[in-house]
Backbone:
């Protein structure tokens, strides 16, 4: 309700919505707000589908950043920010928060491109976006939206702004005082994935593997049917049982030293969220995204004689590929 109040009723909102012809969008009803910001935006249970992140100055919340649909296939995520009141304008809160959110999304999910859209008349939003590293997109806006499969925006004079971050390094410099857990998963498809299996291989010579029951088989893509499913062991368990077993296994790794979970895909970060039941990681555990190229993983799989697209073997290959000495 507080975020809805910031959007619809505070002194800043009055200059941004519901004031045609200056701004076309009318003030949304609470039901309309909830439809556009469903429950997972606030719980983090579907992180690739979007989330609201609060902005704080250390003493109070001053606004929020929202991102929608982390599109790993097209390497783009739409992001926006909103301040709670006019008195917070001009202090850099919005631009700093949006820039940090972009860096966090890259570190978590490996997405490198970010899209922000606003009205050309919204000089405050344009200034904040540019301070956050965004620049106006080249070419025809309609073509770009079609390419990214995004709906047209709310403003007749919409400006599309893009920010592209340098790719994360595809290397890992291990710390001998940490335990590394190399994580992999298999899902039904890449558009609306549901978890099928998960695996983790640790540097302490232990491993975890589990297959899940009750995933919708009708959602499985042709690739999954032809390549992934024939490799399954067939001893699947309910998600709560898998969750308890993995949490206990991970806690044992983190008991004596900090743990870094390493994954090469944003899909694996979402799978970890599903498996844990929360986006938050346990105490003494952190996530690290390392974009290890698929062709390099294929080469390691062939060298070691493992099964490509079996979660446990892919996790083993990732561990070997990132830790084995290179010539």
Residues:
């Amino acid at each position: 309700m507080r975020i809805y109040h910031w959007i619809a009723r505070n002194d800043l909102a009055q200059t941004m919505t519901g004031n045609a012809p200056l701004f076309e969008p009318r003030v949304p009803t609470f039901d309309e707000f909830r439809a556009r910001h469903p429950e997972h935006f606030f719980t983090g249970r579907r992180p690739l589908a979007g989330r609201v992140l609060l902005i704080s100055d250390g003493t109070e919340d001053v606004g929020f950043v929202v991102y929608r649909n982390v599109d790993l296939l097209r390497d783009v995520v739409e992001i926006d920010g909103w301040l709670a009141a006019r008195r917070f304008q001009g202090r850099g809160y919005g631009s700093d928060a949006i820039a940090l959110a972009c860096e966090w999304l890259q570190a978590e999910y490996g997405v490198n491109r970010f899209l922000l859209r606003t009205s050309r008349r919204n000089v405050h939003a344009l200034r904040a976006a540019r301070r956050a590293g965004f620049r106006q997109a080249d070419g025809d806006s309609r073509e770009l939206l079609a390419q990214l499969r995004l709906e047209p925006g709310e403003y007749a004079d919409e400006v599309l702004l893009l920010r592209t971050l340098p790719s994360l390094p595809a290397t890992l410099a291990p710390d001998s005082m940490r335990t590394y857990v190399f994580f992999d998963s298999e899902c039904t498809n890449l558009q609306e994935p549901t978890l099928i299996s998960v695996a983790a291989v640790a540097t302490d010579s232990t491993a975890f593997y589990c297959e899940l029951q009750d995933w919708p088989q009708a959602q499985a893509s042709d690739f999954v049917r032809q390549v992934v499913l024939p490799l399954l062991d067939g001893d699947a368990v309910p998600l709560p049982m898998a969750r308890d077993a993995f949490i206990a296994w991970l806690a044992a790794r983190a008991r004596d030293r900090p743990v870094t979970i390493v994954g090469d895909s944003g899909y694996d970060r979402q799978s970890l969220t599903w498996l844990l039941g929360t986006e938050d990681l346990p105490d003494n555990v952190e996530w690290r995204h390392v974009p290890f190229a698929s062709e390099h993983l294929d080469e390691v799989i062939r060298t070691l004689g493992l099964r490509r697209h079996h979660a446990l073997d892919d996790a083993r290959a990732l561990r070997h590929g990132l830790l084995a000495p290179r010539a």
About this structure: The domain at 2-164 is CATH 3.40.630.30 (Aminopeptidase). The chain has two domains: 2-164, 179-323. The chain is about 35% helix and 25% strand.
